[in-house]
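thought: fold this chain, then report.
action: predict
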Amino acid sequence: MITSEAKSQDGLWKSHMVGSKLMFEIPNALLGKEILVVTRLAKAPEGATGGGPYGGQQVGQPRVLRWERRGDRVIVRSINYNMVADPTSPIAQAVDASNYGPILGAFNVETYGPDSAAVVDVTRLFTSPPPEIGPGNNMRGNPDQTRSFIERVAGYPINVEVEAVLTAGPPPGAAGGGGGGGGPFGGNNAANRTTSLVMHWSMVKLPDDPMMPRLFDRRVGYFSTGYLDFSRPEQRAQQRTFITRYRLEKKDPTAAISDPVKPITYYVDPATPTWLVPYVKAGIEQWKPAFEAAGFRNGIVAKDAPTKAEDPNWSAEDARYSVIRWLPSTTENAQGPHVHDPRTGEILEADVYMFHNIMNLLRSWYFTQVGHLDPQALQWPYPDALMGRLVQYVVAHEVGHTLGFQHNQKASSTYPVDSVRSRTWVARMGHTPTLMDYSRWNYVAQPEDSIAIEDLSPIIGPYDKWATMWGYKPIPGAASPDAEKATLDEWAREQDTVPWYRFNVQGSGGSDPGDHNEAVGDDDPVKATGWGMRNIKRLVPLLLQAGTTDGENYDDLEMLYDRLVGQWSRELSHVTQVVGGTLAQEKVAGQDGVRFVPISRSRQREAVRFLNDNAFATPTFFLNTDVLRKIEVEGAIRRINGAQAGVLNGLLNDRRMERLIEFEALEPNKANVYSLGDMLSDLRGGVWSELRAGSVSIDPFRRELQRVYLTTASNKLNPPATPALPQGLPPQFARQFQPARATSDVKALLRSELRALDGQLQAAVAKASNRETRAHLEAARAQIDDILNPKK
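observation:
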């Protein structure tokens, strides 16, 4: 079977290309061993630069497989670890009987190697892969075997790499369609075309000596893995959850700080623009101080990918290597996934995906948040040093994910809001305690604060150092995860006295105004947003300089204008979170205090007053006709109305209103309560403030806002039968989008508000100072009647 013409390679197991066939020689020692399979796209279909997929991206979730012998056949079985039991316990038999893994392939033994290793033809496992390790939605239809073939095989000591070209024609009945009978776009539907792509499979042997896992704790922001253990002493099926982290071991276990036996290493993709490579490396190694806090010197290092001359077999798809990938995509984003051992949480490999147009997103963030503080933000393209610093931040953030860290949106609220305007504080502590927050650039800073330009960006902060210590620092003498628990709990309780060590509160349901993204200074969102509003007003006059280039069109100007309006709306939405909000800290039994404390009546009322004055009043500073008449013939009203509608709907969120009702029900001293009735009355007074004037005149922007108010009320009082939830919403967040309970006070109070408003409208009609206002008031009364008395 394996002739002298075969192209053979040693590795984890031997691989032989015999013509177009791929043969694996599986030694007996590897039978029954756990093999982690990571599936990636090595090359994506043509035309994928806009919405993906992209070459280098992972497809689906990694899977653990086992080679098993069944007589003269070898099968490959998928294994999961959702449920386990101590193999010495009686229930282990029942767990094993309820956890039978699917067989992904079965192969006849073609011959045997000199050590009785089974030789099997596995070609079809890769040219016609099962769904569990296939291309998924990246290919429509089944691969055509006449146009699919093995492209490359590489063997390494702990892994085997396989690449295959897969080609599929259009699904049955789709060929030639999609154009509506030969119209100008006939036959251009991508679903009706042949698709070719290159898939890459990394098959990595999991460690024979699994890393000791570390128990997960909600108070610290790590990603996690886990399983149900049926042999624990808790008298129930116990969920065991562990953090995901790299295996770091000290060369000198007795030293307070030591070099690691094997540092965490990231390679820079050769496709990265050359001028950005130093900044990508700096983003990786920005984490060094965090690992020093955990006791590791040089715990993380950046390296250039080897050239073909240096290592012809090196591949960015090789699962032994963690790589910062640069992808030719118009998507404005970046991602930082990692691959871990499902048994222990040990991170084995990670990739950061940097989509090329992340630089355009960074440009708009930087301008709309701190463009008034840095004259460089008015140029385009940005100077290399500036854009390099911005890219470095994104790389560092995504590397944080690959190290095991979740987002920590709580962090930015743990600094006193006045401190983020302090030059000395920000230089020492940053404007947020962590890179893992979505607290981009310091939009609270005022020109008179004289904060250094380089200090406007997030840095590795105290939370990053503390959380790295919590997850990575060795605990001498602890021989099991449970033996570490007391020390981990002691470290976690440091959050009681050091607020910037705190993490997002699970189960807050969106109630904590300090636990929201894209915020700076959300210890006091009203004050912070007030300073942000000043800066947005400073930025509007700079739009023409920042968004126009002689000889070019006005697309950039329109983009920056739209995104500045979006920044305005986003900052105002932080204020809505104060209403019906709670001050939250994640705790466990034995810690003093409760997890949720309702925000005071005065702060909630102040927030609604602020929104009435800043969100719902017409933002005349945006109505710069020199800008607007360059980017569009019309659209200003629609744009402002859309932004205001988002804030208004956020304030009238059903969960928020039901929290106000419950806070009132549980508070013995009603004088301390900001009730739902209070909020709705204050909101009506702001949105419809013109009705109190002696002569009533309502501008077009306000008329649109008031119609949104009525439409929102209508949707809550007469909702569609099955309200649609946002696509892809995690289950734990779905409840935030459910309508108010039929038995709650929400509908009754909204009806009361509409009746009160109708009385005000009736009195105001006679005071209308112009035809448009009168027509609007009359139409509003008619709409209220339709809402309160819907036609059957």
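thought: worth noting. The mean pLDDT is 92.
final: tokens above.
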